[in-house]
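__Protein archive entry__

___
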Amino acid sequence: MKKNKKLYAIAAVLFVMIFFLSRCLQNRPVPDPRGSAFAPSQTCRQCHQAIYDSALLTAHFAASAKVTPGKLQGNFNSGNNHFTYDSSTRILMEKRDSGYFQVLYKNGQPVLARRFDIVFGITHAQTALYWQDDIAYELPVSYYTAAGWGTSTGYPPTAPDFSRLIGRDCFECHSSYIKNKENSSGSYFSGAEVNEQMEQGSLVYGIDCQRCHGPAAQHIAYQLENSGTGKGKYIVQQSSLNRQQQLDQCAVCHAGNDRRKLKSRFIFRPGDMLADYFLPSTQPDSVRNFDVHGNQYNLLKQSACFLQSNSMTCTSCHNPHQPSAKSPSYYSNKCMACHSEAGNNFCTTTPAPGTSLKDNCIDCHMPKQVSGAISFTLSGTEGISAYLLRTHLIAVYTDKKQPLKSRH
C-alpha cells in the first residue's frame, strides 16, 4: 500500500513537471526565420512597449498581414460584395467557415474559389494574395478605401484572372522576410532559374523594428543582462547614420523599381548605401518620370526644400513609429520650422477668407496627383478610375498638377 502511494506521488510530481514544462515550451518565442542574429519581433516590446504598440498602427507594419477579420477591409455583405464583368460573370467576396474567399460565378454558379491568405496595404488600398503550391498569386479584385471593390491594378475589367504570380521581390517591400524554397538538389535557384516557391512559415509580416534598426538578438541579450545602462548597444540608432544613409534606409523601398537590382532588399542593413543594391539609371533624373506611388524619395530630392537643406530627411516630417495619416496642419507645422514671415521666405499667396496659410501648406505645395502606376476599374463602370496620392515633389504648382517651380 505504501509502495503504491509512493508510486502515485512520483507520478503526480512527474505529471506536474511535464505540464509546466510543456507550458514553458509553448510560451517560448518561435525562433526568427531570418537567423540567430535576429530576435522574434515581439521581443522588442519588453523594453519599448509604447513605441512598439504605436508602430503596430502604422502603414509600415500593415504593409502585409495574415488575413483575419480584423485585418481584412471591404464590405462582404450581400449587395456590396461583388465585381461584375458581364451579365454572366461576376466575382463575389464571401465569408465561409474556412475563411474569406473571392468566388468566380458563371451564370449564377460558383466555378472557382480562392481564399484571401495575405493582404498588402491598408491606408489607400488593400490587395490580397492566395497560396497555391507554395506560390503566391494576386486575387483579381482589390479594395480601394475611397471607392470600394475594383480590379486589382493592371487587371482587365473584362475577364477575371487568378493567375498573376507575386514573387519574392514584392515581399521585399511589403514584409520583413520570406525564404525561397530549395530545389531538389538542396540549393537555391538563381539567375534564369528563378524559383517562385516560398516557405510560407518563414514569412515575417509587415515592416518590423529590425528592418530599420538591424538584427536585435545581441542587443536584447545585452540589455537584459545590463538593464539601466542607458543608451542601447548592438542596435542601430538612426541618429548615428549620416544623412544619405538615413535617406537610403527609406529609399530602398521608396525610390521606385525602375533600376536593375543587384541584391535582395532583405539583405539591406541600416548604414548600407542604396548604390550597392541597384545599378545606376541610364537616364538623368530630370527626364525620368517618377510616379507618386513608390517614388517618394526621387520626388523629394528634386524639391527646393530638400536641395537647400543640409539635414532634411524623410523623418523630418514623418515619425516612423506613428501612423502617418495626419492633418494638413500637422505637416504644415513642419514647414513652419523653416518658412516664416520673419525669415522672408513665407508664402505670399492671399488666403481665402476665414482661412490661414499656416494651416494648410500641403494641398497647394504637395497636391494629390493621379498615379500612373496604379490603375483600376470599379464594378459597373467603364474606364480607369483615378488613384490619387500626395506628391513628394514640394513645389509651386500652377494647377495642382504641374510644378511651376521646384528649384530656387
In short: The longest strand covers residues 89-96.
